[in-house]
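About this split. The held-out portion is used to measure sequence recovery: a designer receives only the structure tokens and must propose an amino acid at every position. Recovery is the fraction of positions where the proposal matches the reference. Here is one held-out target exactly as it appears in the evaluation file.
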């Protein structure tokens, strides 16, 4: 169960003057990083970690959280304006955001993305806060069949997004699966489809492949 006293104390700590300033500054920097295609939110954290060296641990973590959430939101800006997602999470924004930008409604599209990001982020944070123990106990029961079913479900979602051309969706999903297999195996750690090239051990980044 969630201790509401500790939760309120955490809110009070985050919303204190210096921590709140770090949160706003981190969010602003994260938006800039996320709006640049090829720079993900995780890369933004890696690039901006030196800014937190002189801060207290709590302030540094708050700033890094702001960078990450701002980066996830900022990826939608590039998706709407130039049809190139700044982050992998913003791929779906290209389906409706960019057509709105072509019709001269880029500002409205960005506003809708902002509202959706705010509502979605708040809702998921609340769900994680109150239901994380339940979800953790449920996730520990997953084994190979469940993970395989999730993979099949993900591929079926890709096919459904293709609309009237499910074959194209199936081909694109299979091609993406093939590209994702290049690199080190996450379970065993052995190289897959690297053909002896050290450069391929890290695999292919998502945004450049788009």
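Reference sequence for scoring:
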């Amino acid at each position: 169960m969630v201790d509401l006293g500790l939760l309120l104390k955490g809110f009070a700590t985050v919303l204190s003057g210096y921590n709140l300033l770090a949160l706003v500054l981190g969010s602003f920097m994260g938006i800039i990083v996320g709006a640049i295609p090829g720079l993900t939110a995780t890369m933004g954290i890696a690039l901006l970690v030196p800014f937190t060296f002189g801060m207290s641990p709590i302030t540094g973590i708050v700033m890094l959280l702001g960078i990450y959430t701002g980066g996830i939101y900022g990826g939608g800006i590039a998706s709407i304006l130039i049809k190139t997602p700044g982050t992998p999470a913003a791929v779906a924004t290209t389906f409706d955001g960019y057509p709105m930008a072509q019709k001269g409604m880029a500002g409205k599209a960005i506003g809708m993305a902002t509202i959706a990001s705010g509502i979605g982020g708040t809702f998921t944070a609340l769900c994680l806060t109150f239901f994380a123990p339940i979800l953790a106990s449920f996730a520990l029961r997953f084994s190979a069949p469940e993970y395989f079913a999730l993979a099949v479900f993900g591929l079926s979602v890709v096919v459904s997004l293709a609309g009237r051309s499910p074959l194209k969706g199936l081909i694109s999903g299979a091609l993406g699966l093939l590209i994702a297999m290049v690199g080190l195996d996450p379970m065993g750690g052995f190289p897959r489809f690297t053909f002896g090239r050290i450069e391929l051990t890290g695999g292919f980044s998502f945004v450049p492949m788009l």
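Annotator remark: The mean pLDDT is 83.
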